[in-house]
Design goal:
about 300 residues; Rossmann fold; 2 domains; binds nicotinamide-adenine-dinucleotide
């Protein structure tokens, strides 16, 4: 028996008809989870209604339990319906993985706002549309729950041509920080994964990136991300409010820190700040637990008791 088993646990995975979401759904089902496989089933240009059902059937044929759901994550009604599918079928929801995603790459200067709206709806607003009803249901349960959002290196670190996608993906990181705080007393843990895997999405990437995905082969298979999803969705999850970069079997926590910085002395000016710029941008740094931690940290650096 696997230590991280999910017997009787209900897990919803959005965008699970293929790629990384499908790998999550299969691995969770293999560990005993009852899985709602959501996918709109849209190929990049044309609709294919059967993606979610195909993935769910595959799980059932392997001896697992899964139902499919074809609602979009990109509307409040769709989000509610996806969570309702879990509640109607199995009466609860123990974990939600918001994995569905799309890209609509274009440089910032040339971006039509339709491409902004579409990318925000699926990659960011969906975290609210699916996340809120799931969060409410988890709050109403004694046991709480687990939520895993999906970000991207494009948001965390920046990528040419992906300002819409990067902004949306970074939005869920901000959401996760607050939701981890709001969910803490109900045992709802919220984390974020920045996956890196070969999929339909990356096959449409720029030439240089596409070459890398091809040469890396199985090293970058979606299955290589699944261990992190298992751990973060399990009742024993050791993490909340954190973001992890994952790919090729490598897992690394993404860290946001404040440098020790430089405090201008009385009478010092912008020129003094420039002279001490190295101290502002580099050197020792510290993680801050939440927004309330900034003031005490600055007070400490300024050598005062409090503000
Ligand atoms: N593959 C990578 O290297 C990589 C890197 C960074 C982030 N990501 C993110 O990981 C997630 C999974 O990506 P993937 O590579 O498996 O992509 P993919 O394109 O293979 O799978 C995404 C799935 O989401 C579904 N989807 C799209 N819009 C939807 C909607 N409105 N409602 C429901 N389902 C919808 C698609 O039909 C598709 O099956 C995405 O959020 C993506 O942005 C992937």
């Amino acid at each position: 028996m696997a230590q991280l088993e999910f017997n009787g646990q209900v897990v919803v995975v959005t965008g699970a008809g293929q790629g990384i979401g499908r790998a999550y759904a299969r691995e969770l089902a293999r560990r005993g989870a009852l899985v709602v496989v959501n996918d709109l089933g849209a190929a990049q240009d044309l609709a294919d209604e059967t993606l979610a059902e195909l993935a769910a059937r595959e799980i059932r044929e392997a001896g697992g339990q899964a139902v499919s759901d074809g609602n979009t994550v990109a509307t409040p009604e769709g989000g509610r319906a996806i969570v309702q599918r879990a509640l109607d079928t199995w009466g609860r929801i123990d974990a939600l993985i918001c994995n569905a995603g799309i890209v609509r790459d274009v440089t910032f200067a040339k971006m039509p706002f339709e491409k902004l709206d579409a990318v925000l709806a699926v990659n960011l607003c969906a975290a609210f549309y699916v996340g809120q009803p799931a969060f409410q249901a988890m709050k109403a349960q004694e046991t709480g729950g687990r939520i895993l959002f999906t970000t991207s290196a494009s948001g965390l670190f920046g990528n040419f041509g992906q300002s819409n996608y990067g902004a949306a993906k970074m939005g869920v990181v901000g959401l996760s920080r607050t939701l981890a705080i709001e969910g803490a007393k109900n045992n709802i843990k919220v984390n974020v994964v920045a996956p890196w895997a070969s999929s339909r999405m990356t096959r449409g990437a720029s030439d240089a990136a596409a070459d890398l995905y091809t040469s890396a082969g199985d090293m970058l298979s979606p299955e290589k991300i699944a261990p992190l999803a298992v751990l973060l969705c399990h009742s024993s999850c050791p993490s909340t409010g954190q973001t992890y970069q994952a790919g090729a079997g490598m897992f690394s926590r993404v860290v946001t820190q404040l440098t020790h910085g430089y405090a201008l002395k009385e009478g010092e000016t912008a020129e003094d700040l420039l002279r001490n710029w190295d101290t502002v941008v580099s050197g020792p740094a510290r993680e801050i637990a939440n927004a309330q931690g900034v003031a005490p940290f600055f007070a400490e650096r300024l050598g005062i008791k409090a503000f």
